[in-house]
Amino acid sequence: MRKALIALLSVALTASLAAPAQAANPKGTTWVDKTRTREIPGAVCGVRWGSNGRQVVEAGKWVNKEKSQFVSYSQLSANDAKAAKKTKNKKKKKALTNSAIANQSRANTFQQQCNTMNALKVNLAGKAGVAQGNTSASAIRSIKSTGPTDIRQVVGAGMNVFAVDAQGRFASMFPNLAELIAARQSTCMNCMMMMPTVTKMISGPSEKIYLMFNQKFNFNDMTDTMNIGGPQTCMLAVVTPASTTLQCVDNELVNAMNWSNANQGNSPVQFDSSGAAYYKGQFVRGGGNQSIYNTYIALRRNNNGVITDIVQGKNINIEDFVVLPNGDVIAKGYTTSGRWS
């Protein structure tokens, strides 16, 4: 009986050593889209779809890369903080608290990099200016076959703006465009047809250049082809010689209303003596998707990010306007009841 008990204990011990209990995944582990998730030094930028149907990008680490299981540093910090409150062991409490602080620090450090991991980069350093290219079919064929490599990449993607150096030579304004095109193609077979083009360029004060695109798109994540027209997308951007990415002027703008028309009159973006920008168009509150029920027409002022409607309404049309140095505006247009100026 004793030998049998020893043998039984030996078998149990051997089984225990051979098959240790598998550690549970951290609370908050989620599945991410591996085709769009990127690894950067010190972190993994996990991409998943939120409950609202929009993408969520978080800095964290793999739990199981093969299974696309991921946990964010913010979640790990919250887990550690909660565990530290529960434990009565002072040594363990201190270790968990320190771990919570370290994980939150990682989240703060890497989140900005993750937010712009697929952003359209801008390089105007040392350049004399920006030029809008000829987008006719014959011009594109010629440039694609004979132009410099970086220009062929830009034109081939449908982009029609270039950086210009002091000698008048063209160069790519977007150094990571080819990489982003490949990333877009991995998630959307028809995305080459959806690449935006610049319809208007306006030179502003303080060496700012305003770019109006023909459609809203998420230039902070060029692989985001599902979020068409949402609040993360933009069609009016501004750059300076020091810019590394495009900056959205107004994500609520959904229709530029004939900005590309050469006979429109005065410049579609104008400035007062303080540098505030004025522009007109069709807008959606909150920058959501456009419909006949939630859009309105307005003339707006953007003063260092503070946006104000000067004239606005659903049943109006603003044909032209002039901004005076002191910020006064003269506008011409009409409502359903008649014309005004």
Summed up, the domain count is 3
Distance between the termini: 107 Å
| Number of helices, counting only DSSP H or I runs of 4 residues or more | 6
Q: What is the global morphology?
A: elongated
Instruction: Give the % helix.
Output: 25-40%
Residue runs with pLDDT of under 50 for 5 or more positions: 5-19
H-E string: HEEEEEHHEHHEEHEEEEEEEEEEEE
Strand runs, count: 20
Mean pLDDT: 80
Relative strand content: 25-35%
- Main beta-sheet annotation: 5 strands, antiparallel
Strand order in the largest sheet: 1-5-4-3-2
Q: Which structural category do the helix and sheet elements fall into? A: alpha+beta
Radius of gyration (Å): 27 Å
3D architecture notes:
This protein is α+β, with helices and mostly antiparallel strands. The chain folds into three domains: 24-115, no CATH class; 118-248, no CATH class; 250-341, no CATH class. It contains six helices and 20 strands. The chain has helices at residues 2-18, 73-86, 90-115, 137-146, 149-156, 177-187, and strands spanning 30-31, 38-40, 43-49, 55-64, 69-72, 129-132, 161-164, 170-172, 198-203, 209-217, 234-239, 247-248, 253-255, 269-271, 277-284, 295-303, 306-313, 316-323, 329-335, 338-340. It has a five-stranded antiparallel sheet. Helix 2 (73-86) packs antiparallel against helix 3 (90-115) and helix 4 (137-146) runs antiparallel to helix 5 (149-156). The longest helix has 26 residues, at 90-115. It is elongated and about 75 Å long. Mean pLDDT is 80; it is low at 5-19.
